[in-house]
Amino acid sequence: MQKIFGSKSVTPKKALLLGAGFVVKPTLTFLTENDVEVTVACRTLESAQKLCKDVKGAKAISLDVQNEQALDAEVEKADVAISLIPYTFHPLVIKSAIRKKVNVVTTSYTSPAMVELEKDIQEAGITVMNEIGLDPGIDHLYAVKTIDEVHKAGGKIKSFLSYCGGLPAPEASANPLGYKFSWSARGMLLALGNTAKFLKDGKTEEIPGSELMSVAKPYSTGYTGFAFVAYPNRDSTPFKEKYSIPEASTIIRGTLRYAGFPEMIRCVVNMGFLSQNTQEFLKPSPNPITWKETTAKILGATSSSEQDLTWAISSRHSFANTDEKNRIMAGLRWIGLFSSEPIIPRSTPLDTLCATLEKKMAYGDEERDLVFLQHKFEIEHADGKNETRTSTLCEYGDPKGYSAMAKLVGIPCGVAVMQVLAGKLGKGLLAPYTPEICDPLRHELREKYGIDMVEQTVA
């Protein structure tokens, strides 16, 4: 209907949404419901069309971001480019956006390759907003909130712990790892090999990936219905500066898993199943060998009988006690490593194992996931009193809608895109580390979409 009384029509904003992962759909739906015209670009047209099906205001195209000319042509048509492709490709998108003076939003950490482009970003007068999903993203919004409040009241943050877990809901966790895959099993297992670096009691500590599962410990969140273990991940030391907490003597960011996960992973690692070395017997074949034969070859066992496989495993891995040994052996049996089932050969032990894990440990149609994120602050107030405060997010997925993980990455991304389009976040290379950026994002997520972290004083 034509508007009268001097009102003027508003040209719809346009977004180029790059990616085909599980986070794309909630971001796409969010934007189209906010009257943004979205072009979804994937390497294959079929993937883009699947995402756009039944979404009004969405268009699907095929696009290779490594084709500079084709990328520039699509970026130029948009007001904002949303890069939800692997982080290594973000610089290509940002360079195109610089050339065409178009804003960019990603959910990834700001990488050194992005920092190298900071001057060009500023000269182009555009916004490149990163780290606005769940972790990173929502975690920053609430860390900055509490730190800012404490500092303004004259207090100090003595310790900061932050742990996040994307897990199956408890009723869907009945497998040896207490884990299910909504994304690449390979990505999750390889992440376990990354070195962890953190600050503890004023000293910098470093844990090589090979020892990461050995330092995983039970972690009390105050929610006694969950039996979590926690271990550090990546490098937490830069957050002393990023969060402006020079006074903190302990800063650890890490991962939550259900109890039993570390011991199971340690055994799989010691067996040699995370090797990325190509093996002739694992190459694709019309007649693949069985799992028990594969396990025997990887272990160097004398035969593929379960007795010999058990002996070979025990020679490589130390079990804490008989109960743990029985539990882990039952887990390996559940995965199928002692079975006569043929493998799905993928050339390396890691990829061959992943093919089976993704098949056996996928989410069922009626199963839901869980996201649990918690910050724990040790605070010294201006009057000398001490407080332990937590901020906690516990969210379950909807089997008939979005997973918790997809929602908690996709919606914050969508909110950030709208704020970038409205010119609310400023220009340059940005991430949510200041109250000026965090406060409006946090407020909108809480008030409009019910995404909130619950704060409690626990000591």
Structure description:
The protein is an alpha/beta fold and 459 residues long. Helices cover 36% and strands 21% of the residues. The protein is built from 16 helices and 16 strands. The strands form three sheets. A seven-stranded parallel sheet has the order 3-2-1-4-5-6-15, sandwiched between helices. It has a seven-stranded mixed sheet with strand order 10-11-12-7-13-14-16, with helices on one face. Strands 8-9 form a two-stranded antiparallel ribbon. It is globular, with a radius of gyration of 24 Å.
Index terms:
disordered N terminus, 459 residues, 16 helices, 16 strands, seven-stranded mixed β-sheet, 21% strand, alpha/beta, seven-stranded parallel β-sheet
Write the layout of secondary structure elements.
Elements: E1 14-18, H1 24-33, E2 37-42, H2 45-52, E3 58-62, H3 68-75, E4 80-83, H4 90-100, E5 103-106, H5 112-115, H6 118-124, E6 127-129, H7 138-152, E7 156-168, H8 185-191, E8 196-200, E9 203-207, E10 217-219, E11 228-232, H9 239-242, E12 250-258, H10 261-271, H11 291-299, H12 306-316, H13 322-335, H14 349-360, E13 369-380, E14 386-396, H15 404-421, E15 428-430, H16 435-449, E16 454-457
Parallel strand pairs: 1-2, 1-4, 2-3, 4-5, 5-6, 6-15, 7-12
Antiparallel strand pairs: 7-13, 8-9, 10-11, 11-12, 13-14, 14-16
